[in-house]
Amino acid sequence: MALHRLSRLSCLLRSAVMVTLRRNIGLSAVVFNKAKDLDPVQKLFLDKIREYNTKSKAAGGVVEAGPAYQKNLTEEMAKLQRLYGGGDLTKFPQFKFPEPKLEEGATK
């Protein structure tokens, strides 16, 4: 009888703790999001990332890449094509695995 009551009390305490934790975590998330909006360093960082994203879309690739960058890129691509047997290095390779021919073994 006492063991049953102890089990029931344990279950009630566990559910009360879970509800309290859920409420506190939910409240903490709201407070954290409001505090995150007020952080000037983080806001500046995100603004710079967004600015770079728009510039890279407008440039069609790397921002402010000069002729030296393009020359280096083509040299490296040529080197990789020599090392790995050519092909288009901008695409993922297509693998073809033929089905092996299996022969039935003799049974005992």
TrEMBL record:
Coiled coil: none annotated. It is found in: Mitochondrion; Mitochondrion inner membrane. Signal peptide: none annotated. GO terms for biological process: proton motive force-driven ATP synthesis. GO terms for cellular component: mitochondrial inner membrane; proton-transporting ATP synthase complex. Pfam families: ATP-synt_F6. GO terms for molecular function: proton transmembrane transporter activity. Keywords: CF(0), Hydrogen ion transport, Ion transport, Membrane, Mitochondrion, Mitochondrion inner membrane, Transport. Belongs to the eukaryotic ATPase subunit F6 family. Component of the ATP synthase complex composed at least of ATP5F1A/subunit alpha, ATP5F1B/subunit beta, ATP5MC1/subunit c (homooctomer), MT-ATP6/subunit a, MT-ATP8/subunit 8, ATP5ME/subunit e, ATP5MF/subunit f, ATP5MG/subunit g, ATP5MK/subunit k, ATP5MJ/subunit j, ATP5F1C/subunit gamma, ATP5F1D/subunit delta, ATP5F1E/subunit epsilon, ATP5PF/subunit F6, ATP5PB/subunit b, ATP5PD/subunit d, ATP5PO/subunit OSCP. This is ATP synthase-coupling factor 6, mitochondrial. It comes from Cirrhinus molitorella. The lineage of its organism: Eukaryota, Metazoa, Chordata, Craniata, Vertebrata.
